[in-house]
Amino acid sequence: MKLWGGRFEQAPTEIFERFSGSLSFDRRLLEADIRGSQAWARALERAGILTAIERERIVTSLEEILAEAAERDVFAGADDEDVHTFVIRKLGERAGDLAAKIHTGRSRNEQVSTDVRLWLRARIDETLALLADLMEALVGHGRRYGGAVIPGYTHLRRAQPVLWPHYLLAYFEMFARDAERLLEARRRTNLLPLGSGALAGSGIPIDREAIARELGFEGLTRNSMDAAADRDFLLDFLYAAALTMLHLSRLAEDWILYSSDEFGWLELADSVTSGSSLMPQKKNPDSLELIRGKCGRVFGSLSSLFVTVKGLPMTYNRDLQEDKIPLFEAVDELQASLRMARVVVDSAVLKPDLALRALEQSWAVATDLAEALARAGVAFHHAHQLVGKLVLESLRSGRTPRDWSGEQLASFAPEFTPELAALLEPVAGLRRREILGGTGPNAVAAALGAAQERLARLRR
To answer: Could you say which of 260, 274, 276, 411 is catalytic?
Structure first.
C-alpha cells in the first residue's frame, strides 16, 4: 500500500519502485516505528481524533505485529515501499479501516526521524556498554602486569621506559573521550521531532511533551523545518564512531607490532589469530588487522553522509533516505570491533622479561641521565650534549647502558658522578616520574584506581 496517492494518474513504474524502496534495510526500524506509532495513537486520543476503544485496538494490533516479528521473519515476501508502509499494511490486516487514521497529523518525515532517533539511542547505549567493557579489560590487563616496564616509543624508536599499565591507560583516556562524544551524540539524538509535521508543524493539537515522556526523550526539537531537515545527530554519532574506530585501529597497529617476531614481547592468543594456508609456522594477527581494516568502512560512512547532506535545500529531500545504510554499517562495524578488541585484550599475554630486555639493549635511559645532571646544576643543554656523546661512544664501541660502571661514567666526563650509574637501569628513572599523569609507580597506581571509578560512573 501507499501512504500517498490521489494526485497521480499513473502508478509508479516497477523500476522506480525497486529503485526507491528501502524495506530491505530500514526493516531494522520495525520496533522503533511501532513504539512511535503507539505513542502517536495515544496522542491522537488525547487530541480527540481517536476514541479510547480505537486507540486500544490500534495499540494492541501494533503490539501483536511486534510479537509476531519476534517469532518469525515477518518480512518474508513483503514488497512494501519501506518499514512504515509495511507497518500500516500489517496494522490494516488487524485493525481494518482504523489503520487509515494512525497517520492523522503525522508526516513520514517526522516519523522517520523519530524512528531513527529511537533506534540510534538504543544502539548508543549498547556501544557505551561495549566501550566500557573494553576499558575495563585494559585496566584489568594493567593490574595483571602492574610492575612491567616496556619501551615507550616516539617515531617508532625506543624513547623512554614506561610502565605497561601507563601505556594501557593512554588508550583508556582515548576511549574515555570517545565515551564523552557518544554521550553528547546521544543527548542530541534524544529530542522528539513528532509534532513537526512535514515541515510546518502538525495541524492537530498534539501534546508533544506527553509523547516525549512516553518515549523517553529528554526534550523536543524547537523548529519544525529544522526537525524535518536535521541529520546532524547522525553525523555527531558517525564522527564519534569514526574516532573510536581510529583509536581501535591505533591499538591494533601497536599490538600487531608488539606481537611480531621483531618485537616479541606481547603474545596474542591462538583464539584470536589464524594460520597460513601455505606457511606452517605463521600465527597471524587477523583479529587486529580486521579491526584496522574496518576502520576505513566507518570513516566511509561518515564521509558518505556528509556528502549526502552538504548540498540539500531545506527541508526534507528523498536523499535523506540514504542516511540509514551508512548509519547501520557504522554501528555494526563499531560494535563488532569493540567486542573483538575486548577479547584480544583479555587473552593477550605480556612477556615482561623480553620487554625489559629490549629496554636494556637500548639507550632509553638517556633522558633520565640528562635530567639527573640538570637536577645537579648542569645546564640542560650541556647535559643533553654530554649524554648524547655518551650514547655515541657506546654505539661505536657496542656497549649497552649496563656495560658502564659508576667509575667509568665519571672518567668519561667530570659532570657524571658514580651514583648516576643507578639510572642506567630502566626501572630507576620511573621513580622520578611521580607527577600527576606520569609513569611513576605511585602515579600509575592512583591512575588505575581513578580509572576504575570513572568506569563505574560511565556504567551508571
So the answer is: 276
155-172 pLDDT, tens digit per residue, is 999 999 999 999 999 999
Residue 112 C-alpha from the chain's centroid:
24
End-to-end CA separation in angstroms for the chain? 44
Which among 155, 271, 277, 397 is annotated as catalytic? 155
Is 155 tagged catalytic? yes
Can you spell out the DSSP letters for 177-223?
HHHHHHHHHHHHH-EE-TT-TTTT--SS---HHHHHHHHT-SEE-S-
Peptide bond into 60 cis (omega under 30): no
pLDDT recorded at residue 19: 80
Pick the closest to residue 33 from 114, 154, 97 (CA basis).
Answer: 114
Query: What is the per-residue pLDDT for 6?
Result: 66
343 backbone φψ class: left, alpha, beta (φ>0; ψ -120 to 50): alpha
CB atoms within 10 A of CB 273: 18
Helix (H) or strand (E) holding 456: helix 441-459
The yes-or-no answer on residue 84 being catalytic is no
pTM: 0.95
